[in-house]
Each structure stands twice: as C-alpha cells, then as structure tokens.
Design brief:
261 residues, alpha+beta, N-terminal domain of MutM-like DNA repair proteins, four-stranded antiparallel sheet, 7 helices, DNA-binding
DNA sequence: AGCGATGTTCGCCG
DNA sequence: TCGGCGAACATCGC
C-alpha cells in the first residue's frame, strides 16, 4: 500500500507491537528482498531489540544499537505481528521471532520492497538522495526547493529527492484539491497557488494518516474514490480523465483542474 | 487471460 | 554536471 500515510501507519503499528523485545531468531524466506546479506541482518538483529523507529518519506528506519534496519515497502509491502500459534501470513519474506512467542513479518507481494541496513540516518539520506519528509517540510524550505525545478508538477511531487513521501495516488489527490492540472509546469505556479499547494500537501497527507492509509475510507468528495475509468468528479460531475506520464497513470478532473493558473 | 499496479533505479537526452 | 523523463523491474489479483 505504501505512500507516506501508510508507512506512518506501519510505524505506529511496529511501535505498538514490536519495540523492546528480544529477537530470538529470524527467518529469511526470500533473500531477494535483502539489500544486505542475510548474515549481516542476522548479526544486527538476533539477541537485540528494535529500540525506536523513525519514518522518513516512504521508509521506516528502525534503530538497533548504533545502526538502523530500514524497511521499504515498494508497492505491496506490509507488516504483520502474529502469534506463533497462528499460521504464517502469505507472502512473508522475512520474519522476526521474538522471545514472547510472537513474530513480526515483513510481507512483500510483488518483490518491490527491500530491507537495508544503515550506519546512520544521514548516511541513508545521502545514499538515497532523499529530500525532506513531506509531512515535516516547512513552507520556506518548500519554496526554496521549488526554485530549482522546472518540470511538470506531478513529477515534481513524485520526486523523492525534492520532497519525500508522496506517491502516485496522493499526488493526484493533492493536485485535485489544489485545482491544478497534473501537467502544469511547476515554474508557472503563482505565489498563492504555491502556498495552496503546500497547504494541501499537508492536509491530504493528514487525512491519509487519520484514515490509517486506508484508501477505501476516504470521503466521497475526494478524488480517491473516483480513480477509475468512466467515473465522475465529485465536485462538478465532469468525467474523470486518465493520463499517462513517466510511465505512471494519473487521474484528474479536466474541468476543475485547468492547465493555466 | 491479459492488463494494470500506491515503488525505485537507471540511462539517455538536452 | 545536473535535472527531467521514460523504461524496466517481479508477480499476482481482477
């Protein structure tokens, strides 16, 4: 599922279930999800504990001693905490067994997610060239970062080295709320639209976090329930359109979201 | 049964 | 040298 609100939900879930318990052993079911070798992973976690966690964009960084275990969820990643007595969740790729008889499993259905290890958050940010987290960025920083950008607004929002955490679905929702066409050139945005865009990034992400990343619970007047062919805009009732850019599919309302500002 | 998918990375182009 | 953008990646559900 994971864009920023989903990863934030995973963070809260991990914090609630899995912190400060000794990890007895791990089971690597498919090592293709590992960016590190299985031995280093074992060495890092076995007989140690998840001490705390930090979310950065779409990544979840779990502090263990001086290092970080990094969860990335790709498009279909998930976490599940379950009892030994229950059966292993489907598509589990790596399982952490705790002393208390429970397990945390890292699930990845389509193999796009990865686990990695970093010596520090700074090192990781540099390695991935990550921008400031979308939920933590302030307006001054947003404007400063925008100055160097010239591309299409949707691609800018999706660019993790500019602002980290926004993905395809939330970018569409943010642009819908701001009433801006996804192909609008970023440098043509007025000051007031820029401010509005910034505000809406926060607001849309906040709704997502409040909804625990569950897109099926979004209100009717959002674009999200209408992201399908032949559906209609909840604001003006025009037909929703689908466009392709950079290999991704976006949805927008051609009446509410005009190209010119 | 083929298409599409909420992610990142890489390589080409200007 | 850097930013922008399209393609590639793996696999399963609808």
């Amino acid at each position: 599922m994971p864009e920023l609100p989903e990863v934030e939900t995973f963070k809260r879930y991990l914090d609630k279930t899995s912190l400060n318990q000794t990890i007895k052993s791990i089971k690597v079911i498919d090592d293709r999800v590992l960016d590190i070798d299985g031995l280093s992973l074992k060495e890092l976690v076995v007989n140690n504990k998840f001490e705390s966690s930090t979310r950065l964009g779409k990544y979840l960084l779990v502090n263990i001693g001086k290092k970080y275990l990094i969860f990335h969820f790709g498009m279909t990643g998930d976490l599940e905490y379950y009892n030994n007595k229950d059966h292993e969740p489907k598509y589990s790729k790596v399982i952490f067994h705790f002393n208390n008889g429970f397990n945390l499993t890292y699930i990845s259905l389509r193999m796009f997610g990865r686990l990695d290890i970093a010596e520090s958050i700074e090192e990781f940010v540099e390695k991935k060239n990550l921008g400031t987290d979308a939920y933590k960025m302030n307006f001054e920083e947003f404007k400063r970062a925008l100055k160097r950008r010239t591309g299409i607004i949707k691609n800018v929002l999706l660019n993790q080295s500019f602002i980290a955490g926004i993905g395809n679905i939330y970018s569409d929702e943010i642009l819908f709320k701001t009433k801006v066409h996804p192909k609008t050139k970023i440098d043509s945005l007025s000051e007031s639209k820029t401010k509005e865009l910034f505000t809406n990034i926060k607001e849309v992400l906040k709704v997502g976090i409040d909804k625990k990343g569950d897109l099926s619970t979004f209100p009717e007047y959002f674009l999200i329930p209408h992201r399908k062919k032949d559906d209609y805009c909840p604001i003006c009732n025009s037909g929703i359109e689908r466009i392709e850019l950079s290999g991704r599919h976006g949805f927008y309302c051609p009446n509410c979201q005009k190209e010119s500002i």
